[in-house]
Amino acid sequence: MEKIIVCGGKPLRGSVRVQGAKNAALPILAACVLLSGVTTIENCPDLSDVRAACAILRRLGCTVERSGHTLTVDSRFVSCYTIPNELMREMRSSIVFLGSVLARTGKAVLCAPGGCAIGRRPIDLHLSALRALGAEIDEQNGVLCCRARQLCGAVISLPFPSVGATENALLAAVTARGNTLLCGAAREPEVDDLVLFLNRCGAAVRRTPRGDLFVRGTPWLHGCRHRVIPDRIAALTVMAAVGAAGGDVLLQDAPPAPLEAAIGVFRRAGCSVEPGEHTLRIAAAGRLRAVPCIRTLPHPGFPTDGQAAVMAMLCTAQGTTKIEETIFENRFHHVAALRQMGACIRLHGRTAEVEGVPFLRGAAVSACDLRAGASLVVAGLGARGVTVIRGVRHIDRGYEKIEACFKTLGAQIERSADSGPEQPKSE
Ligand code: EPZ
User: Fold this and answer.
1) pTM tops 0.70, yes or no
2) Where does the pLDDT of residue 239 fall: very low under 50, low under 70, confident under 90, or very high at 90 and above?
3) 129 FRET partner, CA 20 to 30 A, in 87, 106, 144, 316?
4) Where do the domains of the chain lie, and which CATH numbers do they carry?
């Protein structure tokens, strides 16, 4: 067990490179199961969720080697179609292996996935998309037994643009017989990175002018070399920290386009944001202004994964900010810890009303999920005094050495061993 200790109130200055995107790397690793070849994936962050995906690949018969931020996956000899419960429960994204394992082996046996406890997170959309492609799926005692002698292209209509269901359907469709039209597909940049990766491997997937995904089934896919896109949520987290603590930071490897909705929020709060081609410069001084209303939405709307960090930043803004969480029904776990630090937040169902206070003060708090944990780091960096954050393993799922990133920017932040009691597992 470890804890992060932040001595807040020091403006952040300098430049930092943004890590590769976890939520792009994970489905790309799942896609490797489809390939009869060797693949090199660059810019792959070293995170516990990525290590869990590698463990699943190895279990399925692939070899995976890491050298720095480059992973080499040899998936010529996939020999297994079962994923053990302990690997499935490590993270939510394990469910995306269902589509690729089924497509590669004709079978898949696995249980429901784990992941951050931020709502019910059902998998009905994943299963109905796979059924539309011809999969037979039985669920017995929490175990999914799936079969498909031959997956066949179909028209699939997603009632909600679920990221995971889009990725799962795509992975099952790329080697299916015939064409698939995936209507209402998610438009997140991480989905587009998966599409780019699959096309580099010989697949034929394109976005239609309406934003649907059209897939022409190809019988087999080969390996390729691919660089994972930068992590827009890691970038947003640093931006929120600059907003909270003040300072002037240049983010490298941070293309502004995927962050457009968030950039609008930072500017309305009083931060100066200068987009470059692949960089973002953010500066903040003095007290920020509240942003009347922020609604999380599917891309290109404001991302739910950035909601907690931006809330932490706005806890000390002048005025009241309303934050509506429309994606997950239970994504306000960070509120209790922010209140411990002096924040004034009222919750009404899926809306949080954040009334800015002049300052937060350091406290001993606990991360209960990934983005909640990141929000506590943001709050701690802006707070007066010392904040001790426990539950660091949640943060490590999605941020590579978060303390090192902020140290580079001049923050007083350390990670150390912790003998105190840790919070119970949220998965
Ligand atoms: C992905 O989760 C991301 N995870 C999440 O990031 C992110 O918050 C989310 O997309 C939304 O952007 C990865 O990419 C690994 P969804 P996913 O399916 O695919 C409901 C982080 O912090 N739904 O788009 O699980 C669901 O309950 C993580 O990095 C169904 O009802 O998200 C939720 O309310 C957390 N039935 C909404 O859709 C389904 O079958 C969005 O879920 C599937 C989803």
Assistant:
1) yes
2) very high
3) 87
4) 2-19+230-417 (3.65.10.10), 22-227 (3.65.10.10)
